[in-house]
Amino acid sequence: MIPNQTISRRIALKGLGTALALPLLDAMLPRLAVAGTATAAKAAPPPLRMAFTYVPNGVFVPDWTPATEGAGFALTPTLEPLKAVKDDVMVLTGLTCDKARAHGDGGGDHARAMYAFLTGKQPLKTYGADIRAGISVDQLVAQTVGDATRFPSLEIGCEPGRQSGNCDSGYSCAYSSTISWRTESTPVPKEVSPKLVFERLFGNGNAQESAAARAKRELYRKSVLDLVRDDARELQGTLGAADKRKVDEYFTAVRELEVRIEKAQERQQEPPKVPELALPPGVPKEYADHLKLMSDLLVLAFQTDSTRVATYVFANDGSNRPYPFLGVSEGHHDCSHHQGDPKKHAKLKLINKFHVGQFAYLLERLKAIPEGNGTLLDHCMIVYGSAIADGNRHNHEDLPILLAGRGNGTLAPGRHVRYPRETPLTNLYLALMERVGLKLSSFGDSNGRLNNLKV
Q: 275-318 pLDDT, tens per residue?
C-alpha cells in the first residue's frame, strides 16, 4: 500500500490469538473526486454509540436536582464533579419508571428497578426458571446496528450477580443483577473482570488460539502489542503523519491499560468482607480502580468501533457495598434507608457524589479523544441513572437521569430539562433509538418520544 491510501474501517492488526482493532483514522475516510481539483477527502459521519450506565439505591434528591432550568443552571453539590463536562451533559428531571412499582406484587423494588430500567416492563414475580418480562433497549439497538461491529453489544459492571435464586422478596436474582435482556426470558450477564473484557476485545474469536496467546503472553510477559508487531509496522508505512500520531497515542493507551490490569492482579489480596459479594480473579481490590478500568475498556471499545452499544452497571440495585475510602463503613443500601437521619444523609451524599465523579471520568476520557471533526464524546449518547429516586421511599418517579454526548449533532447538552411528572423514562429511549435508525411506535410503557433534546 502507498502512504495515505484509503484503508478499511474494519481493519485489525492480527497476531497469535489477537485482533487489535484501530481507532477512526483519516485514511479510513472515503476519498471522492472533486471537479477541477485533485482528489479530496470527505469525512463520513462517525458511528453513533450508545451506552447505559446504572447506579443503585437512588440518590439524596435535595442535593441532586438543579434549582433552575435551561442552560444557565448551577451544578448541585452531587453533580459538581461534572464541572469539566457540564456543557456535554443534560440533566433530565421528571422521568418515571412505572414498571418498577409494585402494581400489586408487594415488595421487591430493587429487583423491579434493575429490570425495568431498560425494559419498561414489569417482571413476573418468581425466583424459579420461569423469569419473564421483555427485551431491553440496548439489545433492540444491538439487533439494528450490531452487524456493523465485532461485538453487537458489550455488557460490563463492577459487581457480580447470580442468575438464579431468591434475591429480593420473591424475585429472581437474575432480575436484581441484570439490566440487559436479549429476550423476555434471556438475561445477558455482565462481565466484571477487566482482564476478561480486555481479552474479549483483543482476542481474534478463536478460543483455542486465544488461549494459546494468553499462555504465551503470560509466560513471556508480552504485551498484546508485541503479538501484532509485524502488522503494526506494515500499517505505519501506509499512514500520514497525523494518523501515525493517532495510532501511537492509541497504542500507548492500550499498553497503559494492560499494565494497570497486570498490577491489579499482582496486588490482589483477600477480597474485602462485603456482604454477598464475591470478587472473581482479575478484579482490582479497590472499587475506584475497578470502575476506572472498566470505563477505560468501554472507551477503547467505542474508540475502535468494536461495539456501538454497551451497558455498564456500577453496582447491583440493593447493593450494600461499604465505601470505607469515603469514610462510610456502613453499606450503601443501609445508608439509603436514612429515615431522615442527617448522619446517613451525609454518607449517602458522599456515595452519590463519588458515583457521579466516576461518570465524569468516563465522559472526560471520551472527550479527550479526537474523532472526525469533534471528539468521541460528541458521537455518543450516554445515559446515567437509577430507577429509584429516593432510596428511603423506594419511589420511582422524578428519577435521577443524565444524558451525555451530542449524538452526532442530534442532542443539545449543557441544559437542565424538566418534563411533566410521570413522563415515562421509555420515552427517552424511543427518542434515542430513532437516532440510530430504529423507529418504533412504542417501547415498554412509553406514550411518545421525549422532546426538547435538541433546541
A: 344 455 578 889 999 999 999 999 999 998 999 999 999 999 99
- Is the torsion defined by CA of 192, 194, 196, 199 positive or negative? positive
Q: Answer yes or no: CATH 3.40.50.720 is held by domain 48-192+283-455.
A: no
User: What does the pLDDT look like over 54-91, one tens digit per residue?
Assistant: 999 999 999 999 999 999 899 999 999 999 999 999 99
C-alpha cell at 141: 439497538
Count of other CB atoms within 10 angstroms of residue 272: 13
Q: Are strands 380-385 and 401-404 parallel, antiparallel or unpaired?
A: antiparallel
Q: What is the pLDDT of residues 235-260, one digit of tens each?
A: 776 777 777 777 777 777 777 777 77
Helix segments in 224-341, DSSP class H: 224-227, 229-236, 241-267, 287-303, 332-336
What pLDDT, in 10s, does the model give residues 356-407? 999 999 999 999 999 989 999 999 999 999 999 999 999 999 999 999 999 9
Task: For residue 453, give Cα distances in angstroms to 85, 375, 404, 407, 412.
Answer: 17, 20, 11, 10, 6
Q: List the grid coordinates of 72.
A: 444557565
Q: What is the pLDDT of residue 32?
A: 40
208: Cβ–Cβ under 8 A, 6 or more apart, which residues? none
From the list 445, 449, 300, 420, the residue with the least C-alpha distance to 365 is: 300
Which of 2-6, 207-211, 241-245, 437-441 is predicted least confidently? 2-6
Query: Residue 449: what residue type?
Result: R
- At CA 3, angle to CA 42 and CA 377, rounded to 5? 45
CA 424, CA 445: separation in Å to the nearest integer? 7
List the beta strands (DSSP E) in 359-414. Answer: 370-371, 374-375, 380-385, 401-404
Classified as helix, coil or strand, 95 is strand
Whether the pLDDT of residue 39 is over 60: the answer is: no
Boundaries of every domain in the chain = 1-44+197-278, 48-192+283-455
Q: Which of 415, 421, 450 is nearest to 434 (CA)?
A: 450
Q: Enumerate residues 6+ apart whose C-beta is below 8 A from 44.
A: 29, 30
